[in-house]
Design brief:
The chain is mainly α. It has a domain at about 1-65 and about 120-190. It contains 8 helices and no strands. The chain has helices at about 10-20, 25-35, 50-55, 95-120, 120-135, 135-155, 155-170, 185-190. The protein is elongated, with a radius of gyration of 23 Å.
């Protein structure tokens, strides 16, 4: 139950012990989540956040973040989701000196942003996400639904087959009835994932 501790530092210490005792590949982690661990003691809460944490913990946190090829696209300056809304445009500079100064300022801020983004590592994003998932079951639910299909497709076919029966067995556990009225719940997340 140390994994449910409200104090992040205490929870981290318990999780480190937990993390170190398990295999460091996705199949071993999923096998532990679906087959080996008895979640009944945590059946009154959204325990899948601990499972998600086990998966995210094996990411190589010192790696730099690389953006997807389509991620450099710029969003529109004006929101288009409300076509009837009137948008206030920023004041336009008057003379060429103001235009040059405004342009230099924009380029400098963009260069600073790119330099900061270049130094980002996986840990800079994943560690806060893991902590947020512990504090909010909805975040954990949505992360599971996003991450699980990605993880599943990286498994070998034999590994997927080996996990199918334990997943079905896990879904049929009576202790999930404690969560049936809650949203999100573990069964809902496992099925949607």
């Amino acid at each position: 139950l140390g994994l449910r501790a409200r104090d992040p530092e205490m929870r981290r210490k318990f999780f480190l012990l937990y993390h170190e005792s398990l295999g460091k590949n996705l199949f071993a982690r999923l096998q532990y989540i679906f087959q080996n661990q008895d979640w009944e003691a945590m059946s009154d809460v959204f325990w899948l956040k601990q499972g998600l944490d086990l998966l995210l913990a094996i990411l190589i946190e010192k790696k730099p973040i690389t953006l997807a090829p389509n991620s450099a696209r710029l969003v529109p300056l004006l929101p288009s989701h409300n076509p009837g809304a009137h948008h206030q445009l920023p004041a336009m500079p008057e003379g060429p000196e103001e235009v040059a100064s405004m342009f230099d300022d924009i380029v400098m801020k963009h260069a600073q942003f790119l330099n900061a983004a270049r130094r980002l590592q996986v840990a800079d994003v994943v560690i806060p996400l893991r902590e947020l998932a512990h504090t909010d079951a909805n975040v954990a639910y949505h992360l599971w639904v996003l991450v699980f299909p990605i993880v599943w497709t990286t498994l070998l076919k034999e590994e997927q087959v080996a996990l199918a029966k334990p997943m079905i067995s896990l879904l049929s556990k009576d202790y999930h009835k404690k969560q049936q009225g809650h949203r999100p719940n573990v069964v809902q997340a496992l099925l949607e994932g």
